Amino acid sequence: MISHLQDTVTLNNGVQMPGFGLGVYKVENSVAAASVESALKHGYRSIDTASFYQNERGVGKGIRESGVPRKEIFVTSKVWNDEQGYDSTLKAFEASLEKLGLDYLDLYLIHWPVKDKYKETWKAMEKLYEEGKVRAIGVSNFHIHHLQDLIASSNVKPVINQVEYHPHLTQEQLKAFCEEEDIQLEAWSPLKRGRILDEPVLREIAAKYNKTAAQVILRWDVQQNVVTIPKSTHEHRIKENAAIFDFELTRDEMEQINSLNKNDRAGTNPDSFDKD
């Protein structure tokens, strides 16, 4: 179990990844720089961005200004849908590196499973991995059938599947498949963009531990060994989100939270993302 802020999970290629990090979805560059610097100051060691967020320059600035050695920070970025394909993925990766001001990435992900493109994209990512430009490669928003299709024609298995995951969308079958295949599950939008925090069960459990509903959800994630990357731009919230390692949910409380599942998404279904 992920038991402290800098605790790591071991990916299927042996790379150690922090189990808790900062997400910067659609945060503008100047704010991203301050958020990243603040998170690193308060002990975070994993930062998740993407070319689509258009804030890689800000993330890179925050990393440099934090004073934390590069080798201690786990940096993730993602290739966007219109960048997919073999040659364009290689170019997109170099563009991300340049914007971040880094020599390598720790993790590079396919952002969405673009039909007829993601296998070529993956071949390019395998090349980047084999050349040592990235320490690990994975996917985001892949259903089981996408993963099966990719694995069947790949030399390198994805280390991660980063998906929407919260108590209203527990994705039990996908989670079980990823565990069976030794693919680490990672939660984006773990707080359902704030739309879940008024659940009475969460508020009741939170009151018992003198925590917030958000902290209870994030604790639920780490107790299941699901890597989680809550987004915040406020220093007090960045600190608060990470203050989840001084209490433990009971088995019954975990089940109560699991029972909140509605298969309800805040984001798009990966089978229809290109049709919305």
TrEMBL record:
Keywords: NADP, Oxidoreductase. Residues 27-261 form the NADP-dependent oxidoreductase domain. The active site is at residue 53. The record marks 78 as: Lowers pKa of active site Tyr. Pfam families: Aldo_ket_red (PF00248). Substrate binds at residue 111. The keyword Oxidoreductase applies. One of its GO terms (molecular function) is oxidoreductase activity, acting on the CH-OH group of donors, NAD or NADP as acceptor. Belongs to the aldo/keto reductase family. This is Aldo/keto reductase. It comes from Lentibacillus cibarius.
